Amino acid sequence: MTQAFAGWTFAAVIALASAPLAAETPQREKIAATVAAQHDATVKALQDWVALPTIAAEQRGTPEGAEYMMKLARDAGFQQAKIIPTDGVPAVFATLDAGAKTTVGIYFMYDVKQFDPAEWNTPPLEATLVERPGEGTAIVGRGVVNQKGPEMAFLSAIKAIQASGRKLPVNLVLVAEGEEEVASTHFDQVVAVPEVQAALSKAIGVFIPSAAQNRDGSAEITLGAKGAVEFQLVVGGETSDKYPKTDIHSSNYARIESPAWRLVKALDTLVADDGHTPAIDGWFENVQPLTPRQKELIAQGATPEREHQEKAALGIGQFIENEDYRTSLERFYSQPTVNIQGLVSGYIGEGGKTVLPGRAEAKLEFRLVPKMTKAEAVSKLQAHLAKRGFDDVRVTVSGGYGPNETAEDAALIRAQKKLFEATGIPYTIRPRNAGSWPGVIFNGAPLNLPASQFGLGRGGGAHAPNEWFLIKSSNPEVYGLDQVTMAYVDYLYLIAEEAKAKK
pLDDT by residue (tens digit) across 138-154? Predict the structure, then answer.
């Protein structure tokens, strides 16, 4: 009989420690044993974190979330951690000086998306352990994969290194915001703080922990991300006196204009007749086309198996205009978008109500590609609407940032390649992620730093009901929590090696 060790067998601990990266990671076996020993505590810490939601859109839990994030940083060994006030939700800034020659920036988000408990199979804040057929044991809870699970794994990694009696191979600078899910409304204020900027300027780059493994065990390296701008369009009595202040009897539509129809007409001008191509004046002026190398990378990842997996995950049978998979991926990574997130106006309950709405609202988002900027996109939207006489349509921008790009030969990226190749994990390189994170704040002036995503393990349901993150994998090709933690350990050592090699 094998003896249990913190939820693992000794055989499992040995397997965790026997990766071919032992040469790059000193005393890897000892660190792996520490990771296994702290497994249960890490799971409990993650569950506790999920139980505390920070939802900027609802102004929920924001001071508490910042305080908790600061505590997590200190518990992980950061010598100094402080709250950075903003005009919105506070951020957290922390540093860990290991006396190393290389400094790495870490970006966290401690906020999560809204949720409706009625849509979930388990309470979204209880972080319930469930069995996923064919995958293993997972935690289900809001924010567990986006991004608390990967972030907790990273914190566990640096704890394990220190608990094993070693200093980290790199110094760390952590910036954690609480507004990522509202398009990082005030994050630029955080990085502009002289103390924060000075600390980050010493870094060779910044990365965000993620869970990027596919079901077959393969992974992706992303060289950037699209930008995002969130805004709303409002038409009604508050924007013009030609509309009623409240809902009124629908018979009055014969003599009073409808805010709902007016908004629909304005929205219709934003896309072409195909329903998806942006039609905002000058929209494509500064769009940077894909390079031959980027097209090559896309083609390498456009396999029939991946196409099948994506369509199944998305619940679709075809892409726009029934395009082939490779063409759809080129569009996915290279095209800016104008998306309607939601439309609200008038009565939407059971039966009819014979009202003329007093207000109509649409929530929209732009996804931006290089060389577009947030300021440019907003300015062109406003000019487009004004040119067509929509002066009664109010535009309110809630947040946003531009796209980011990182060179393939950056130390952060080279370290990822080396880790995947050493462990035999098949990977593809994406020109960018079609989703967004505020990497441009690091990429752009004055820091001009490489910015990347990195992480293994699996999860899903971000922004959706039943969000999950894999804790113990039943597939040996896919990493569970402890293997993900060790991947971060190895990654830090590899970054240190690649930074030294670059010099």
Answer: 999 999 999 999 999 99
